[in-house]
Amino acid sequence: MRTADIPAAMRLKESAGWNQTEQDWANVLALEPESCWLEEQGGEIVASTVAVCYGQGRAADLASSPATHLAPSPAARPAPSPVPDRAPSPGPHLPPSLAPDLAPSPAPHLARSLAPDLAPSRAPRLVPVPDVAPGPAPDPAAGMARDLARDVAPGLAWIGMVLVDPRFRGRGFARGLMEHCLRWLEARGVLQVKLDATAMGRPLYEKLGFREERIIERWRGPASEGKAGKAGLPASDLPLPAIASLDRASFGVDRRRLIEQLLKAFPGHGVWEPEGFVLGRPGSHSYFLGPCAAADAPAAERLIRCFLERTSAPSFYWDLFPDQPAVVDLARDTGFERQRELVRMALRPEAGLPGHPERVFAVAGFEYG
Questions:
Q1: What is the pLDDT of residue 225?
Q2: Are the C-beta atoms of residues 193 and 347 closer than 8 Å to each other?
Q3: pTM for the whole thing?
Q4: 3-state SS, residue 175
Q5: Taking CA 310 as the corner, what is the angle to CA 307 and CA 312, rounded to the nearest 5 degrees?
Q6: CB burial of residue 368 (10 Å; 0-12, 13-18, 19+)
Q7: Average pLDDT of 252-270?
Q8: What burial class does residue 21 get, using C-beta atoms within 10 Å of its C-beta: 0-12 exposed, 13-18 middle, 19+ buried?
Q9: Packed helices 22-31 and 256-265: angle between N→C axes, nearest 10 degrees
Q10: Among 207, 245, 208, which Cα is nearest to 55's?
Q11: Which residues does 20 contact at the CB level (< 8 Å), separation at least 6?
Q12: In the predicted model, is pLDDT for residue 235 greater than 70?
């Protein structure tokens, strides 16, 4: 996939009624330009799948885990080295507002290669990340050897944006893209793969070896006028090291690159204090609240209420886990109502990741985890 393909990807998204914007597609391209794939038929883009890799883990753990066996992929790229976090700065910073295809089929022809084009597109508001365009594709065996020499591999890959044009469903395009994606991830040495499945997509994912982990729900909240007369803070005033550290402690793997991209693309859309943070971003239908991580429920309530009070939007989406009563109670108290249910699924349920899921009070989105 290239930046120039974003308008076509948006048409896929709109056919499913999803909330992503052009900037969300630009974000996944910036984070993982080699693992955003499209299917083309007759010169028309008809299906998509993306995967974003997070953090690092020990490659030895993968070897000892009974993983799903897939054929090797033709292009692997070494995982980036993590950036160490610094201690969080004191004091609160309160910036203001602001279906897939289930039929089996041979793997499809991939219309877009792994070599991206990150030149500015026709949408000038998209925020790119500098220096993300890859050089020549490395030799897969050499790349895996370097990973094993370092004894590390990406800790988690998150699959999202699995879309098929309704006119082309039933032809195996989603399955073919998913199989290609999983082969690519295995060649990279990823320890765990997860996704959030709709009812339509779940049977396909189960056939590929994914198993249910927990239920996740989308809730929708009413309009808010926010607090007028306030100017947004730049991303530099929301401390990346502190926010990334809080996110890693709760989510279980390092998502610093994602946090940095969200802060860069949506400056000022967040609230932070030493006990937690909440970020947000505009959507094509509703403003999206998340991710949010906090030390406990009172801290999360304080952050989310402050964020909602300071954010102007016609409506809100909040993706949460219904097995956390404090989160559900807060959503109801702030006027949110349950809209839909998905299932969080893992390819290797036995390959647990560290973290404190009870400290996750809003997820980053179905495409990010």
A1: 82
A2: yes
A3: 0.75
A4: helix
A5: 110
A6: buried
A7: 95
A8: buried
A9: 140
A10: 245
A11: 10, 13, 161, 283, 284, 367
A12: no
- d(CA 185, CA 183) in angstroms, rounded, equals 5
* Nearest in space to 156 (alpha carbons), one of 352, 320, 343: 352
Euclidean distance between CA atoms 54 and 90, whole angstroms:
27
How far, in Å, CA of 35 to CA of 53, rounded?
9
Phi, psi of 256 (to 5 degrees): -55, -40
Distance (Å, rounded) from C-alpha 127 to C-alpha 144? 31
Do 269 and 98 form a contact (C-beta atoms < 8 A)? yes
The sign of the torsion formed by the CA atoms of 309, 311, 314, 319 equals negative
Lookup: tokens for 280: 């947000």
Neighbours of 327 (CB within 10 A): 24
Q: What distance in Å separates the CA atoms of residue 343 and residue 85, rounded to the nearest whole number?
A: 32
- pLDDT attached to residue 227: 64
CA distance 267 to 114: 29
What tens digit of pLDDT does each residue of 142-187 get? 333 333 323 345 789 999 999 999 999 999 999 999 999 999 999 9
The CA distance from 130 to 152, in Å, is: 25
Please list, in sequence order, all residues whose beta carbon lies within 8 angstroms of the beta carbon of residue 197, skipping any fewer than 6 positions away.
205, 210, 342, 343, 344, 345
Residue ranges in the chain assigned as alpha helix (H): 6-16, 22-31, 59-64, 140-150, 173-188, 202-207, 240-251, 256-265, 297-310, 325-333
Angle at 3 between CA 157 and CA 26, to 5 degrees: 50
* Residues 31 and 142: beta-carbon distance below 8 Å: no
Residue located via tokens 């102007």: 312
Find, among 309, 265, 269, the residue nearest to 288 by Cα: 269
**Rg of the chain over all Cα atoms, to the nearest angstrom:** 20
CA–CA distance, 7 with 25 (Å, rounded to integer): 10
pLDDT single digits (tens) 60-81: 333 333 333 332 333 333 333 3
Q: Is the pLDDT of residue 19 over 60?
A: yes
pLDDT of residue 258: 97
Residue type, 83: V
